[in-house]
Design goal:
single chain; mainly alpha
Length: 124
Amino acid sequence: MKKDLIPSLILAGGMIGIALAASLARQQGWLDSEAVNRIVMGTIGLMLVWVGNRMPKTFVPAAAAREVNRIGGWSMVLSGLVYAGLWAFAPTDVAVIGGCAAVIVGIAVTVGTCLSLRAKAPAA
């Protein structure tokens, strides 16, 4: 458990550090508020990519759980890339709606996979 917790805490600390650095840059007049917002939101998208990349590498004993981790990992990586890309390049309105839609679709794919595998599983 400690082995999984430490990288996550480092990631969380890095995200907080980036947000604080961007906020300080805004206070110094080096960035405007929209740039700070885009940096922080893009960082959240990259965090989704990192989490999605780690999901399939997590060991679980059941084959169905491994399949959910694999598909869930891919869906989180792709939705995180879309989210970060939209916050980097799209207008804010499009980034908000498109980014949320990308994450919702990623979650729906994962939940759909879970439900599909559950329906295929033999009754206990």
